[in-house]
Amino acid sequence: MIDQLALLMGGFAAALTPYNLLFVLIGAVLGTAVGVLPGLGSSMAVALLLPITFALDPTAAFIMFAGVYFGGLFGDSTAAILLNTPGQSSAIASTFEGHRMARHGRAAVALATAAIGAFIGGLISTTVVVFFSPFLVTMATSFGPAEYFALAVFAFLAISSVVSESMTRGLAALMLGVALALVGIDGPSGTERFSFGIPELFDGFDIVVVTVGLLALGEVLHVASRIHRDPESLKIDPGGVARISRADFRKALPAWLRGAAFGTPFGMIPAGGAEVPTFLAYGTEKRLADRQDDPEFGRTGSIKGLAAPEAAANATAGTALGTLLALGLPTSATAAILLAAFQQYGMQPGPLLFQRSGDLVWTLLASLFIGLIALLALNIFLAPIWARLLYIPQHYLYAGITILAMLGVYAISSSYFDLYVLIALGAFGYLMRRFGMPMAPLLIGVILGPLAETELRRALAVSEGDPSILVSSPITIIVYIVLAGIVILSAVQHVRHRRADRRAAAVAG
Amino acid sequence: MRRRTLLYGGFTAVVAGTTAAALANGASTAGGSEARSTLTLIAPAATGGGWDGFARESQQVLREESIVNNVQVVNIPGAGGTIGLSQFIRSPGNPSSLLVTGGVMVGAIALGEGEATFDDVVPIARLADDYAAIVVPADSELETLDDLLEAWTDDPGGTSISGGSLGSIDHLLSGRLAQVIGIDPEDLNYVAYSGGGEALNSLLSHTTTIGVSGYNEVADQVEAGTLRAIAISAEERLPGVDVPTFVELGTDVAMSNWRGVVAAPGITDEVRDQFVDIVTEMRDSDAWAETLQRNDWTDSFLTGDEFADYIRDEAEQAAEIVEDLGL
Fold first, then answer.
1. Which of B114, B160, B220 sits opposite A348 (nearest CB)?
2. Which of A329, A355, A395, A404 to substitute to test the interface with B, most B CBs within 10 Å?
3. Per-residue model confidence (pLDDT) at position A161
4. CA of A47, closest CA in chain B: separation in Å?
């Protein structure tokens, strides 16, 4: 412990120079900027920066990358909260309560909550990386397809609470999501599914196109359709106060910590992605809110429902970087480019990293902390300024969103086809809103469906069709036991609630 | 009033910023200009993908050595690079764009993804190779290639192999090995992962018995002693790599994951010669030597007709393997 602390301090000493701080600022601004814009992600920013960094010394480059890496996750919630348009898929879960808060005059508070959440998540997970990186390796390598599948099943059921308003609509939306995710070439067999021979569909729908289409464009069309009917209900009150009150902070703190607790372990798992823990965190907050009869959740926007997924997303990113360093496994596109960047400086992430280039690693880890602090300061400062975006009259604002959505999607792969898909999905999103279909289950289906399918098939391929592989390891058994416990608990609770309701009804009658 | 102006200004700036970014990303062909002044490298993969890295490394060298004034990289990802290929051939005669390509695209075309093939483009040069290796976890009982091939022949279904996506060199190499040692390739229990990293993890978690992966991706694990490399797919033993080749061990299999560039169909001979000159100049530079070394790529420079023949052979072999695999 003490050793690590001393090494980390050495890292700080190397990283904290005025020259380096300039680069952390550049990285933070750039990272936040690409995070805000849908379609442009941290991976794009790192790729564009890569040539520039050839001319820099390693410390300056790392510190800039640290800003970009976490910056994307700080920025992605901004448009999610203000415009219902997540900048990256890791901010999808933040749109639900975050945008509600913004609509009810708490935009600046929501932005600040998201920034603090991202900071706490990043801080906790980076600390975990500093002290427990050998453990990360063990954790990462104990996950096979059976374990992934168990996790996916767990996630499906654990988040089922978000479908609870109307079971039929929720399940229908979930299935629509799974159906959307089935399009494209099937990985294990190479068979085309629902692609109608269109080459652009071979890789399926890009998650950014799906979220921007359904959430942003769908919202724009919805607003446009209501503009003469009930203009009042569409008004957004920007609300000037950016300060998080003590009461808000006290409410959000446990949610931030819960979110970080979800995200931290998920980052260690190589193929998890940041979406699953954000949804799990959101689902947990919703369950807790139901139990406590929280009047804000799902109506005026709950600070907890935003705080948890934000912390979860950044916590995942922190430990994911740890896995990259300790195992040399790039777990995302951004990580893959970072890997290339590290190699420029003769630093080869993997089992030998700490022996071979210890100095650089500790500088990098220190840079991550510095980056997080810079990002927190930047985003808290920016929160009230961003919130003013909502002062723009609606017709301009939504026209702007449309342009941003189109440009962002076009930027992914410079393809017109994606734009047609975007428009079609936007129309679909409008219909879903019109008929009161919930969005969250659909997006969960899009993300979890393929994960569950692929892992199940991999597990069965390896076992040559023997299903017992699914419960063949301690991890899988534990996951299923916990799952069974949750199901039984909520069933008992459900029955109790019903009885109480009936009794109340009887008394009232 | 002032506040409003500020706001509009901010918003406009954001929109303008995105526009610029999208345009920079989307601008593909400048048209008319000579490749020496402006060159577009099309990476048919997403940022972070293998071809993207190759394109950006090339961009860096071309700039640094002032071989080309202005080089840009455009990403057109999808379907093993075939989306990029089919878009690329839509601008015939383009004198200022090169498409980055390689072994993965050969596999994707063989799998029938997209309609365009290498016959539709003008081969310019092959620039670098790297090789795949067969690896097992360090505690595996399979010590040598003979052990491995024996265990595999005894129980093809129970010997699961993890590697990159279908059509990748990992997959084709597995199929080719099966052909050579007489296993029905259709019995191959190949578990496809989307990237080398994930495939590697499946091996470390003892999900699969054997892993096939780019040697560079596993080299550190081998050195650290968590994995054991059984054989590598190079023709000859690589300098500084203490892993035998298949050929050395008596199994006649060699395959490389090559990377190169091709030009649009219908270009004039002058334009073609110009392209060849540019890449030759790049390849001969010190910066490129350094790039090769840093990425552990083997220099396999080949241009013109020889390169065209090479691609044709590769495509035939890939088509044959894919057919045998029953895909």
1. B220
2. A329
3. 59
4. 7
What region does A414 belong to: left with phi over 0, alpha with psi -120 to 50, or beta? Answer: left
Token digits for A148? 């992934």
Regarding pTM above 0.80, the answer is no
Residues of B in contact with A40 (CB under 8 A): 18, 21
Do residues B92 and B264 touch, judged by C-beta distance below 8 A?
Answer: yes
Q: CA-nearest residue of chain A to B63?
A: A51
Q: Which of B223, B45, B199 is nearest to B132 (CA)?
A: B199
Beta bridge partners of A415: none
Chosen from A458, A464, A472, A476 to mutate, greatest number of chain B CBs within 10 A? A458
- Dump pLDDT digits (tens) for B263-281: 888 888 888 888 888 888 8
Angle of helix A246-268 relative to helix A107-141, nearest 10 degrees? 30
Across the interface, whether the CB atoms of A40 and B21 are under 8 A apart is answered: yes
Buried residues in A156-190 as b, exposed as e (16+ CB within 10 A): bebbbbbbeeeeebbebbbebbbebbbbbbbbbeb
Q: Is beta strand A192-193 parallel, antiparallel or unpaired with respect to B256-263?
A: unpaired
Give dist(CA B188, CA B201) in Å, integer.
20
User: Going from the N-terminus, what domains does chain B have, and what CATH number goes with each?
Assistant: 36-129+257-324 (3.40.190.150), 131-232 (3.40.190.10)
pLDDT of residue A162: 59
Chain A residues with CB-CB distance to B26 below 8 A? 410-411, 414
Q: What residue in B sits closest to A354 (Cα-Cα)?
A: B224
What average pLDDT does this structure show over A350-378? 82
pLDDT tens digits for range B94-141? 888 888 888 888 888 888 766 778 888 888 888 888 888 899 988 888
B113 touches chain A (CB under 8 A): yes
Give the minimum alpha-carbon distance from A439 to chain B in angstroms, rounded to a whole number. Answer: 27
- Taking CA atoms, what residue in A is nearest to B199? A329
Asked if B26 has any chain A CB less than 8 Å from its own CB, the reply is yes
Helices (H), A201-274: 207-211, 218-226, 231-234, 246-268
DSSP A119-157: HHHHHHHHHHHHHHHHHHHHHHHT--HHHHHHHHHHHHH
Answer whether A150's CB lies under 8 Å from A480's CB: yes
Token pair listed for B165 = 């996506």
Of the segments A196-200, A275-279, B258-262, which one has the largest average pLDDT value?
Answer: B258-262
Minimal CA–CA distance to B107: which of B134, B131, B125, B81?
B81
With CB atoms and an 8 Å threshold, state whether B18 touches A391. no
What is the per-residue pLDDT for A425? 93
> Which pLDDT band holds residue A170 (cuts at 50, 70, 90)?
confident
Please give the interface size between A and B, counted as residue pairs whose CB atoms are below 8 Å apart. 182
